[in-house]
Target: ATP-binding cassette domain-containing protein
Amino acid sequence: MSIRVQALTKLYGQQKAVDGISFSAEPGVLGFLGPNGAGKSTTMKILTCFIPQTSGTASVCGFDVIAQPLDVRRHIGYLPESNPLYPDMYVKESLGFIAGIHKIHEPEKRIATIIEQTGLGPEQHKKIGQLSKGYRQRVGLAQAILHNPDVLILDEPTSGLDPNQLIGIRQLILDLGKTKTIILSTHIMQEVEAVCNRVIIINKGKIAADDTLQGLRQKNNNNTLEQIFISLTGSN
Ligand code: ADP
Model:
């Protein structure tokens, strides 16, 4: 199992952000949905070893996030919602920097492969600050997959992109999901239908649904995903 989460809870002071959730994931694209404040980012930050949980366990490729964080980081790629990048770095330079952190063997070769895979070719000699938002997302994705992780955590990777840019990034996610386990957080239901084979809906820190898209529809009178989302999480 690539991801295993059991009875995971996170408290920020008195605030319960994640409330005893359990799920597991294997290769494919898992949509991670829920209203703002539901606990999605907190769960993702725990899985990527950015913050510790309050209780429960989480593991990535069999490695525990608390006991074996270095092994977890080796097996996971993370594109945070804010996609922090260095605007003054050139695209290739930034990938070289990340390759150095991961001590990647033959970095030039790997960087060339990733530039090709993420469609960064035409923009590879530009500074990140000169790129459009779509290309900046590609750089974020390229950085996240440079060390060829088995698991990818993508927090709203398509927010703010125009329809043409959306199509490119979605195709990339679909391709990556053929071999990797991807957790994709998004508010765009069309995107879920386009790329996800399974969906977890989280609401107020708890799991409200964990099913295939087809299963979810069958259990909810064949309603649209948007209607199902609203009925499970309230209209707030
Ligand atoms: P989502 O990603 O689903 O929008 P989050 O995981 O960001 O949700 O947040 C879940 C809850 O935890 C929210 O109520 C949010 O305000 C709270 N929260 C998130 N980060 C912090 C923090 N660093 N300190 C205090 N509360 C936080």
